[in-house]
């Protein structure tokens, strides 16, 4: 009768655990890069957005309804995830390149932030060429807020975006809440919305 030495059993066990851990890691990376497990959320409707209370950053004692932004001419509104985020700064810069065309059409460009960290807004303003307002209740981020948690950091597309923005010279920081994702709304003067 042949007996397996104790050291070989230990080695076999380590190999089994290693292969299992490697397989789980590969499966996790594959799943993180697909949309199968991303939560589906309700989109914000015009009716939902128009009742949002916004505050001008210049005077937070004043409050007005968001529908005042687009009721006459429509508007393009960027809901900023985090003003210190270098990806958000890149996006704001790209959207701001459209401002001359929007001005010719009479369509204003606005930004909405969910928190007012003064130095963050000041650092963001050179990238964004529109007025910025505060949405304390985070309604512009949807009835069910979309979040990108830690699994987002193993998504290939996220790393490609990081690299592109970094190579373009955008810099940022980690100040403020950054898990709730932003968005872009193109709202017509009637009840038309694209998000």
From TrEMBL:
Major subcellular site: cytoplasm
Transmembrane annotation, as ranges: 12-33
Keyword Cytoplasm: yes
Top-level division of the source organism's lineage: Eukaryota
Any one GO cellular component localisation term in the record: cytoplasm
Record GO terms (molecular function): antioxidant activity
Similarity comment text for this entry: Belongs to the peroxiredoxin-like PRXL2 family. PRXL2A subfamily.
Protein name: Peroxiredoxin-like 2A
Keyword annotations of the record: Antioxidant, Cytoplasm, Membrane, Redox-active center, Transmembrane, Transmembrane helix
Entries under InterPro entries matching the protein: PXL2A/B/C, Thioredoxin-like_sf
Subcellular location: Cytoplasm
Organism: Engystomops pustulosus (Tungara frog)
The keyword RNA-binding is assigned to this record: no
């Amino acid at each position: 009768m042949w007996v397996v030495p104790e050291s070989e059993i230990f080695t076999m066990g380590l190999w089994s655990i290693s292969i299992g851990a490697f397989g789980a890691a590969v499966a996790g990376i594959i799943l993180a890069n697909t949309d199968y497990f991303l939560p589906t959320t309700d989109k914000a409707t015009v009716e939902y957005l128009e009742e949002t209370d916004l505050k001008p950053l210049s005077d937070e004692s004043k409050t007005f309804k968001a529908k005042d932004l687009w009721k006459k001419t429509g508007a393009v509104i960027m809901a900023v995830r985090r003003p210190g985020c270098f990806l958000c700064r890149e996006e704001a810069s790209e959207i701001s390149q459209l401002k001359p065309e929007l001005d010719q059409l009479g369509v204003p460009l606005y930004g909405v932030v969910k928190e007012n960290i003064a130095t963050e807004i000041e650092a963001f303003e050179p990238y964004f060429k529109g007025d910025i307002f505060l949405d304390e209740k985070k309604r512009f981020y949807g009835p069910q807020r979309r979040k990108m948690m830690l699994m987002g950091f193993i998504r290939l597309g996220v790393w490609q975006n990081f690299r592109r923005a970094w190579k373009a010279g955008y810099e940022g920081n980690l100040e403020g809440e950054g898990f709730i994702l932003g968005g872009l709304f193109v709202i017509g003067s009637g009840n038309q919305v694209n998000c």
